[in-house]
Task: structure prediction
Amino acid sequence: MSRNQAACISVRGVTRKFDDKEVLHGITLTVRSGEIFGLLGPSGSGKTTLVKMIAGIDEATAGEIDVLGTRMPKLEMMNRIGYMAQSDALYAELTARENLECFGSLFGLRGGRLKQRMLDVMELVGLTGHLNLLVGAYSGGMKRRLSLAIALLHEPEVLILDEPTVGIDPVLRKSIWDELASLSARGATVLVTTHVMDEAGKCRRLGMLRDGNLIAAGTPEELMAGSGAASIEEAFLHYGCACA
Amino acid sequence: MRIRALIIRIIRQFVHDKRTLALLILVPLIVLSLINLIFDGDTYQPKIGAVQLPDPIAQNLVRHGAEVTVFDKAEDAEEALSGREIDAIVRLEGGAPRVMLEGTDPARNRAVMAVMQAAVQELVSAQSRTEAVPLPTFDYLHGGADMSTFDSLSPVLIGLFAFFFVFLIAGVSFLRERTSGTLERLLATPLRRREIVAGYTAGFGIFTSLQAVLIAGYAIDVLGSLMTGNFGYVLLIMLLLSLTALSLGTFLSAFAHTEFQMIQFIPLVIVPQVFFSGLFDLESISPWLRWLSHVTPLKYGADALRDVMIRGEGWSAIAREVYVLLGLALAFMAANVLALRKHRKI
Result:
């Protein structure tokens, strides 16, 4: 593993309990600056819980999380992180423009800069023509794209996307992954969760999560080589069984 | 700045969702008008069936406001009574009038009795021929002889409507923020928890102020509700009342998982307040229940509104209620800021 890149996200011994139930058990992982890191695991494995803590919305019961060298959670860091949740989280009774304006102003964007960013992100997700349409009239895929556009609005250095391609057709899925690649090429760090194994191959590095444990981490090639598997899916099964 | 973004968003949501705006503003006016029609009608004229009643007595009853039908046979009268065509049968038994009431509606019973008493009294004083007993004269400290039921109820009702509709709409809106995931998205911005509560209060406050002006103005100027005090005080109390409803609604929405569960708060939170608000006389309620009235915001609002509208009182009479409402609103808002900790600690 090359250590030439600085750690952007550093998770050390993070445990999360809900009431008495421990859903994450001492997770330690590092995401380096500018890479696309995929968090892979079946639903219920704790992916969302982990990324919410990294995004600063939730707090770890034990352990530490640093993002860009700052201990989380920290309100000021929200300006440098873009978070897209599993649900689209849009105001259906407002137009796309009004949604963007609302969240843009919450991130401190205003005036010409806000306008420019709105046009930029809407072009990025291919929704320029639908800026003044009520979100309630959007299709599922369009909502997902608008949701992504909002997460990109304030040009975050760290982008955290929770299952960004769920329920999205293959063509759009490819365009979203292309977009993530170009964001990463421009220096943004991308943390993405997925349970679709074939998406995992598009990540620079992967973390495999199962029942609240990080069972393996590394580049897709390393993981496949280490398990002697021919695919990510086989590798996942290999590490999962070895752990159990 | 960030609060302003929230306010603008709430305004835009209302502009797009005209139906909710109508529920907040038009529906209270419609319901008030209906109540006005019901309670502001003329005094009820009891329908009395006279069975072999001497003419002077029957005429006397008519003079005192009854609608008299003369029956020759008692059976016909009884049939009319059970068919609810008349409210009472009057006949003479051994020289004294005997009244048979239909009996299902206390208000009608009272109307019949009042007419009977007045009529009998007149007969008695006419027969005794002594110097007429001096009749009492009535003076009013507040209100007046022509004050209607609506006049007495309307301060409570305008307070109740301001409270109820704001509670419901603010509560459901805030709940939807949670269920749709937009609350989580708001919490993924640098917005502080207290800014969320402040933004909601201010954004909804614009519409609840509009509602307060419209409801109070409509009740007083259009429906002609009795108003002896300062309109400014009425607005102040209405605003505080809806602020309390707003903060209580948004706070309680933290304990509901669906819109349906939010609706379930109505019988729990709104209905008991109606009982304690002054619509019903609570003098006879058990003392151990009466303390409840001290924790219901609506009671403070309704008391203050009555003081201003009916008794024409000024600041000194309503100051305590105003401070209590203000305190309750602030307490609920603080509780809401704390309740949001469940979603983001910082």
